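Onboarding guide, step 5: your first structure request.
Type a short instruction followed by the sequence, for example:

Predict the 3D structure of this protein.
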Amino acid sequence: CSYYSGGGMENSYISYELTVDENQIAAITYTEKKSDEPDEKTETVKVSYDAIDEIRAICRETNALDWTDLPETDLILDDSPTTSITIRFRDNFLTIKDTHILPEEGKGFFTRIYGVLETYFNQGVD
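The system replies with structure tokens like these:
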């Protein structure tokens, strides 16, 4: 699962990426680039596998993995930041952008996914 928000006139961004390695260790990598700094900052922390379970629960509750051919809004702001979420569970793959019009059950989807990633990244595990 990954969350990206950035771009636009300021050309700054943040991203979270939740991954599981071949040993079934879950980790979240946080990357941040501020427009006034030359380099990006990246940090990876091991996290509880519960993070994956929470992402999976949100997807089940909203039926997100069934969202196909989502319509896009007609309102596009040039030079504004963009936000996207990509989720992959085995063969199920979904990418959603902030320009997509989500179904009613998707209300707050971006905020919920971001909240899980941020919370588990900040908690970490040893």
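Each response can be followed by summary notes, for example: The mean pLDDT is 90.
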